[in-house]
Design a protein that fits this description.
The chain has 226 residues and is of the alpha/beta class. It has a single domain, classed as Vaccinia Virus protein VP39 (Rossmann fold, 3-Layer(aba) Sandwich). It is 40% helix and 22% strand. It has 8 helices and 7 strands. Strands 3-2-1-4-5-7-6 form a 7-stranded mixed sheet, sandwiched between helices. It starts with 6 loop residues before the first helix and ends in a 15-residue tail after the last helix.
């Protein structure tokens, strides 16, 4: 989750090896290396893929996705914050809790179905632990709902989640909707953070049949990181 950036955080950030590496390699953020590690381990990407990156700013994950998808691929990124252009990435600025923003993504995708949905969304801290956890879980649920309505039958979802109230139920829900769910804690994820990444693979056929045809357009909105 987001946190107040005090002197200790700033000191750690400046000396962080992943921050230095990101600058050296021209990556938008250290978070890019979280995705790179998971992608390498689980073979997430293939040339020509259609990818949606929710909560994309400043663009580290979109950079990784665009490079991996290649010239024949398409990456659609959404965030409430602005994000400078990235080659091969269609960016939509807005809060995805707003139906108008969700509809804009629908229009951009057209009838295309998605190979991979990425969500690194997390709320800013309010200071109230129960409220922060609830907001984090709600963001993960929105990413899941979008994925279930837009993914191809063998499509995958990689979503950030946080240990705490609602976590077990969220994982159980993923296991009911996908063929396989694995937990990943990449090296670039700080040890003190309760964040983990859940990789849900292969939407179950029964779920697709229940929710409608493969070409259905999502009606629920997904929240951008706030």
């Amino acid at each position: 989750m987001g946190r107040v950036r005090g002197r200790q955080w700033i000191k750690e950030h400046v000396t962080d090896r992943f921050v230095r590496r990101a600058r050296a390699e021209g990556m938008r953020s250290r978070a890019a290396f979280k995705l790179e590690e998971i992608a390498r381990r689980d073979r997430l990407f293939a040339p020509g893929m259609v990818v949606v990156d929710l909560g994309a700013a400043p663009g580290g994950w979109s950079q990784v996705a665009a490079r991996a998808a290649g010239e024949g691929g398409l990456v659609f990124a959404v965030d409430i914050l602005d994000m400078p252009a990235i080659a091969g990435v269609t960016f939509i600025r807005g809060d995805f809790r707003d139906p108008a923003v969700a509809q804009e993504l629908d229009r951009a995708l057209g009838r295309r179905m998605v190979d991979l949905v990425l969500s690194d969304m997390a709320p800013n801290l309010s200071g109230i632990a129960s409220a922060d956890q609830a907001r984090a879980t709600a963001l993960a649920e929105l990413a899941r709902d979008f994925a279930l309505k837009r993914l191809k039958p063998r499509g995958n979802l990689l979503v950030k989640a946080f240990h705490g109230a609602g976590y077990a139920a969220f994982v159980a829900g993923l296991r009911g909707a996908f063929e396989r769910v694995d937990t990943r804690k990449p090296e670039a994820s700080r040890n003190r953070s309760s964040e983990v990444y859940l990789l849900a693979r292969g939407v179950k056929r029964s779920r697709i049949e229940r929710d409608g045809a493969a070409g259905a357009v999502p009606g629920a909105a997904v929240a951008a990181r706030s």
